[in-house]
Amino acid sequence: MNMYNQSNLEYSLIKYFSGKATPEEEVFVEKWVSQSSDNTSYYQRFQRLWAQRIIL
After folding, report:
1. pLDDT at residue 55 in the model
2. Which of 17, 24, 30, 31 pairs as cysteine with 50 (C-beta 3.0–4.6 A)?
3. What percent helix, strand, coil does the chain show, rounded to 5?
4. For the CA atoms of 24, 37, 1, 26, what is the dihedral angle to 10 degrees?
5. Count of alpha carbons within 13 Å of 50, Cβ hemisphere only?
6. pLDDT tens digit sequence for 27-39
């Protein structure tokens, strides 16, 4: 994944976790997560980091 796509993905994940994603972005994230175990792992790590940010 190149840097541009990585930034777009992270922006989509932030919107997804903050509840501000559009329905299309939600579908994108959910499809992306289901495409590979690497994507699922990345999603889970990102989700943990997001949750820690909220707690701090």
Report:
1. 63
2. 17
3. 85, 0, 15
4. 10
5. 16
6. 999 999 999 999 9
- The structure tokens listed for 41 are 């792992």
> pTM to 2 decimals?
0.81
Cβ contacts of residue 29 below 8 Å, gap of 6+? 12, 13, 16, 21, 43
Q: Which residue has the tokens 């690497």?
A: 38
- Residue that is written with structure tokens 């990345």 in the block: 42
Give the type of residue at 7. S
The DSSP call for residue 54 is H
Tokens of 37: 């175990």
Cα 53 to Cα 47: distance, rounded to the nearest angstrom: 10
